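Regression check, magnesium ion case 724:
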Amino acid sequence: MQVRFLPRGHMPSFLDEPIGNIRYFAPAAVKKLARLKIATVRDLLYHFPSRYDDFSDFIPIADAKPDCAATISGEILSAKNIRTFKKRMMITEIVVGDESGEINAVWFNQPYLLNQFQTGRRINLSGKIAPNKKRLCFSNPAYEIADSGRGGSLRQKEPLHTGRLVPVYPETYGLTSRWLRSIIKPLLKFAGRAPDVLPAELRKENNLPDFESAMAQIHFPASVENAASAKRRFAFEELFILQMFMGLNRLKFQRQTAPAVPFDENAAKKFVKTLPFELTGDQKKAAWQIIGDMSQNRPMNRLLEGDVGSGKTIVAAMAAYLAALKNFQTAFMAPTEILSRQHFEKIAPLFAKSGIAAGLLTSSESRIFSNSGEKISRKKFLEKVADGEIKILIGTHALVQKSVRFKNLALAIVDEQHRFGVNHRAALLKNGSGAPPGGTPLVPHLLSMSATPIPRTLGLTIWGDLDLSLIQEMPKGRKNIITKITAPAERSEVYEFIRNEIKNGRQAFVVCPLVEVSEKLSAKSAEGREIKAAKKEQAFLQEKIFPELKIGLLHGRLKPKEKEKTMAEFLNRNLDILATTSVVEVGVDIPNASVMMIEGADRFGLASLHQFRGRVGRGKHQSYCFLMADSPSAQTSKRLKALESAQNGFKLAERDLEIRGPGDFTGIRQSGLPDLAIASLADLRLVEETREAARKILSRDPNLKNYPILKSRLAEFRNRVHLE
Ligand code: ADP
Ligand code: MG
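Current build output:
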């Protein structure tokens, strides 16, 4: 057997056989399938129908009626091609008869069909009968020769395209369902050779059909119920594999050793007392969970999730502070310089009160916080990190440069974690040090932070290797952001409103229309159009609407330095309005901005809209969000209305999942997860069942010694799927 690259631990099975090795697949077919990314038997068998046509009831020809769908079976009485000169069309016409009567059938411009329609043979036809014709006539029906052919007996064979529930595949690249049926059907005979990846006891507990029969029934179901049960089995299978994968990652992570930071309750309470505000209940709970994790010598891997402005930074700072009191270091990584600086300026003074040194490191800056304002060289700065004097190092991905060495890093914090790749995180964790003599190096505890609320089902699946701490409660006194859907006619009112806010000393954002990405448009040219729109908007606002104001422009093609510069100008109030594409910087606090105007709001997802809105309302001023929508469809109206009425990001995320489905959540479509798995991510019950099933197996047999098939499938999965 010729085998493609297979990952380690993978035991090739029949399913891994390249299609090209199967005798009845001609090279042309192999090439065609490659266009659908189908290379192996598994790929082909797991290419599931998207629906079924019900052609299951044969009726006598005499019972067929015009303008109705019907399935009949009969003998071909005559067949011919007719050329219509007027319309330059080729019509293939046959007459079919059974004991009850006769019926015609026609196809257009497929003259080659005639070769198959030999008189005397048995044929099945399924489809719609043309209205108001003198004679009953099928127009372009599904057809199938129903006997096994010349010389042989006129024995019935099992139908594929007619006379049954007929699978309809997602058709792409000109591959028809008819063709896919004809190549999948013969392969199903061999499905029994593939071992079932779902252990028998699991199938029994969850009432799932076995692999072989489920595979047969999902493609060619005997009944609607069978199709549903087969589909449930494969949805279960896909989610179960995902859950096993997550569970294994989690176990692997936990097998490492981390420095235990002893829990000092008094110090924690004292720190909380020094804050200028009272922590919310959720902040306290999250802090306690984090501190609890850190007191173990198993590394923490926790995601702190809370809406923009919910106060995640202070929770992270508290963990860093407690580590510093026990002489451990913390690395706090943020995606941009401006955000790093902002964190540094907030956190460092808190630490200074207890004489704890904090440092800021970006590619352009290295600064230590001190009252004396003493300046030190970058070299000297890095020495202070290496000898452990700087207890908390805040900065951009400059933190993972080789020149940065820690003495005893116990905690790695990653803010806006989705902005970093796996590599950045891994590089940060490599900085663990203080290995006991002869032992493996310690890994730091990892705290990731995100303001993107995720629905519960996703938290239990694709983020299932993390522990979650949620901050759902906003700090006291935070005003709701007044949100309003605005029609084009109200545009000038909104401009006047903005003018007035600016007169009162506030600032405003204008997010510009996202150009819809049509399939042909590359991401790059879509971005180009988006930038053009933002530039145009800036010019328009500057020349036509607000000639007296200063208007800045922010977009994705600016160099990071230029972006930062514009953000800094806005922060320092050198700009009144910032026109921006959807790149508008995450996380940066512009407490003085009070208006967010979103053009083309109907084109954004709820999560994005919510993120944009979160840019305002971060100070003491009442803030406003205007959703400009040209002519929203019913579905978008629903979305925008949800935003008008709800402020809570978690509720919005659930709503978004309901309205749009899981595929539109960041990174999921690109993950390489099978479509069925993606669709099933919204099914809380199935998610919980599969999680429980995976948990059971992993607690009994964490190395999967007794589950070689499962182990091998997981190796294959690891190779194929990319989850951030
Ligand atoms: P995010 O969760 O978006 O990172 P931040 O941590 O930047 O939010 O907090 C937003 C603002 O709220 C900051 O100015 C912070 O000082 C303030 N803040 C945090 N917690 C509280 C609280 N419990 N009460 C009042 N203000 C708070
Ligand atoms: Mg933040």
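Comparison notes: The chain has a mean pLDDT of 86. The pocket of adenosine-5'-diphosphate (ligand 1) is lined by residues 277-280, 283, 306, 308-314, 451, 475, 589 (CB under 6 Å). No diff flagged against the previous build.
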